[in-house]
Amino acid sequence: MKPDIHPKRFETTITCSTCGTVWPTHSTRQNLRVDICSHCHPFYTGEQRIVDTAGQVDRFMRRLQTSQSQQAEAARRREEKNKPAAARMAHNLRLLLAKLTPETHSERSCRWT
Ligand SMILES: [Zn+2]
Question: Is 0.70 surpassed by the pTM of this model?
């Protein structure tokens, strides 16, 4: 090794913040921490679990909820918009019925006359 060109090397540990496993190691940095390790990652444990350290699942669920409520709102508006047409159709039906039986249609109570 050449003198004065190498960084200082420490005897230190790597700590997993999920399961707390500690490994001794050598590094130029001290007290290393990792989010997940081979002792607790679902790939190695075979466990069915979602690793969500960045809150991505939460973010996805929030977005899903927002889009669902927006869709529901849009559907409600569409229905509201189509209501007059439905009412008119009902009126025309009532008129047809009234032609068959005049006493069922009241001119005064019907707003479409
Ligand atoms: Zn771990």
Answer: no
